[in-house]
Specification:
Structural class: alpha+beta
CATH topology of the largest domain: Alpha-Beta Plaits
Shape: elongated
CATH class of the largest domain: Alpha Beta
Largest sheet: 3 strands, antiparallel
Order of helices and strands: EEHHEEEEEEH
Radius of gyration: 20 Å
Number of strands: 8
Helix content: 10-25%
Strand order of the largest sheet: 1-2-3
Number of domains: 2
Low-confidence stretches: none
CATH architecture of the largest domain: 2-Layer Sandwich
């Protein structure tokens, strides 16, 4: 199925059905605009521009993206940087880029260049690895 574009004033919402994983974030988040029982299923006239942009930004697959006339398309998966993640044998996940991590308490930590995340569940410094996998005999 080919991509479809829906337009309201200078806002265009692009739907790429081949990317859609049917999470229903759009339908649940803004049901007046995104209604999969209606044809066409996207009606931009039913919502405010900022609300539509916010909801499109929540699309996990990138099937929905938007552009504003004379501006770059946003939420376009082809433009996202590829991040290398390595599962170290019998150890942590290594993320090879600068990461901004929000901890459960809301604190934000910036880890430059590389981060190591616990896979064994034994770290006392979760979500980060503290080497506990060695003592626990973690394999994986």
């Amino acid at each position: 199925m080919a991509e479809k574009t829906y337009t309201k004033e200078n806002l265009s919402v692009i739907w790429k059905p081949g990317l859609c994983i049917h999470s229903a974030n759009c339908v649940q988040g803004l049901p007046a605009v995104f209604d999969n029982t209606r044809r066409p299923w996207i009606d931009l006239e039913q919502g405010e521009k900022e609300a539509i942009i916010t909801q499109v930004g929540k699309c996990p697959s990138g099937a929905l993206s938007y552009s504003i006339e004379n501006e770059k398309i946003m939420n376009n998966p082809e433009e996202k940087k590829v991040v290398q993640v390595t599962a170290i044998p019998n150890g942590p996940l290594q993320v090879n880029t600068t990461c901004e991590i929000q901890l459960p308490n809301g604190e934000i930590v910036l880890k430059p260049e590389k981060s190591f995340f616990c896979r064994c569940g034994n770290s006392t410094n979760k979500p980060f690895c503290d080497g506990s996998h060695k003592k626990a005999g973690f394999t994986g």
